[in-house]
């Protein structure tokens, strides 16, 4: 069974968690939510209001995390996804979250990150020499971490696929599914059939 881990926490952007969660399930993968603790998380919704210089935040959906970062064996998973929102601002300080991310870069396995998600990649020290998208105001964070910022919706650098935010969800996941396929990562056809039915 091919399993994919989403690394997130409270105040993650609802659309950036649920879109990959359900899209990857639909494709036949078993998807787990990893967080600092295995408990119910509170996600948020970010949107834009005329006259504001930045996004606004409202409460979003609640969803249970399946596993605490400390209990994750990265070898159990074929890929990871790092959504945005505010969760990456604090999970980037979690040593186990960084350990998980480093494993996937060291083993050259597929990684998807969007919006503020690359903050975790930067903290893990894996963006050096890599091209990455992110929420545009985080271009400086990508560059300070030694990466090259690209303002795009489905930016691919090897097995890394990044995007700017939830409006890019379609192009982001399309590119990620193509990277998974090119890497020989196969989903469970029986799960895909159930999801499609």
Automatic annotation (TrEMBL):
**Entry similarity comment:** Belongs to the peptidase C56 family.
Q: Which residues form a coiled coil?
A: none
Organism expressing this protein natively: Agromyces tardus
Query: Could you tell me which NCBIfam families the record lists for this protein?
Result: PfpI
A Pfam family for this UniProt protein? DJ-1_PfpI
Residue span, DJ-1/PfpI domain: 3-178
Mind telling me what this protein is named?
DJ-1/PfpI family protein
Q: Which CDD domains match?
A: GATase1_PfpI_1
Which superkingdom is the protein from?
A: Bacteria
